[in-house]
From TrEMBL:
Originating organism: Pseudomonas nicosulfuronedens
GO molecular function: NAD binding; oxidoreductase activity
Sorted UniProt keywords: NAD, Oxidoreductase
Keyword Ligase annotated: no
Domain of life: Bacteria
InterPro entries: D-isomer_DH_NAD-bd (IPR006140), NAD(P)-bd_dom_sf (IPR036291)
Keyword Isomerase carried by entry: no
Protein name as annotated: D-2-hydroxyacid dehydrogenase
Chain ranges of the D-isomer specific 2-hydroxyacid dehydrogenase NAD-binding domain: 103-275
């Protein structure tokens, strides 16, 4: 079978796949314009959704696309076909996402940036640090990644609260709520973590009214989608000291324009969409598992329901 790998890491993915799956003929690259003819002969594509979308717009039609991202927003555009199988990258981001979140939550508890500023000012900083033990963490978006994060945070003795589109009892969360419950649940959270996908229901939900209900000691972390946050409202909340701080990994426009106020907002840290990078070995393991399922006509992991958008 012929496989098209369309990704910035295409050479590495192609090498790993050819070594592991000799039945595959792999064509790879990162420029859709030069791969139109090759793509037409490949029923299966593996790669970045934005690059795959460019090929689809040129009339090439696969049987199945395996995204190398968890998000597949570029492939949901109204002008693109949706009569093929699409699978998201699942089961490979839980640990790296947890490591990202822990980095900044622990830095917040240990007052890392403040101590760095004290050192620059030649000041001995002996303030007592905080601890995650007993902190209430609100995870907004309890899908595959959110659940993995919750399980890895649980040993720190935190109070886990979840928000889901369709709330239900879910281990290890102590409480669950729906999106309508978010303002109420945010009132008592020490950390509010956004892991929601980009859907019409999740657009602009983090607005000034919500930020005003959060504790002034709370830290907001957005590792979901930039469209969930009203940028000017977050800026206003931080300038008014209504939040302790914000860690922003995803933005509405990336790279962030130099004129955007986030660059100069107090207590806002930008992390450049690096929260949960795709680890090649794990992605290839996922793809090979799904390829076996594809050949057998079985359901694949991470299959997307185009009507829901995820």
């Amino acid at each position: 079978m012929r496989l098209l790998v369309l990704d910035r890491e295409h050479a590495l993915y192609a090498a790993l796949l050819m070594a592991a799956e000799p039945r595959l003929t792999v064509i790879s690259g990162n420029n859709p314009d030069t791969l139109v003819e090759a793509a037409a002969e490949c029923p299966v594509w593996l790669g970045e959704p934005n690059l795959a979308a460019q090929l689809l717009r040129q009339g090439v039609h696969p049987v199945w696309i395996q995204s190398s991202w968890a998000g597949i927003t570029p492939l949901l555009a109204d002008d693109l076909p949706k009569d093929y199988a699409l699978t998201r990258a699942v089961g490979i981001f839980g640990q790296v996402m947890t490591e990202y979140l822990l980095t900044y939550m622990l830095a917040h508890e240990r007052q890392f940036l403040g101590r760095l500023a004290s050192q620059v000012g030649v000041q001995w900083d002996d303030r007592a640090p905080g601890s995650l033990s007993g902190r209430q963490i609100l995870i907004v978006g309890t899908g595959e990644i959110g659940q993995a994060v919750a399980h890895m945070l649980a040993p720190f003795g935190v109070d886990l609260v979840g928000v889901a589109k369709n709330p239900r009892a879910l281990v290890p969360f102590g409480r669950m709520g729906g999106l309508d419950d978010l303002p109420r649940l945010a009132e008592t959270a020490d950390y509010v973590i956004n892991l929601l996908p980009d859907t019409p229901e999740t657009a602009d939900i983090y607005n000034l009214a919500l930020f005003q209900r959060m504790k002034p000691t709370a830290l907001f972390l957005n590792a979901g989608r930039g469209t969930s946050v009203v940028d000017e409202d977050l800026v206003a909340a931080l300038e008014a000291n209504q939040l302790a701080g914000a860690v922003i990994d995803v933005c509405r426009q990336e790279p962030l324009p130099a004129s955007h106020p986030f660059w100069h907002t107090p207590r806002l840290l930008l992390t450049g969409h690096t929260a949960a990078p795709t680890l090649p070995s794990l992605l290839i393991d996922l793809f090979r598992d799904n390829l076996t399922r594809f050949w057998a006509g079985q359901a694949m992991r991470g299959e997307v329901d185009f009507s829901r958008g995820y």
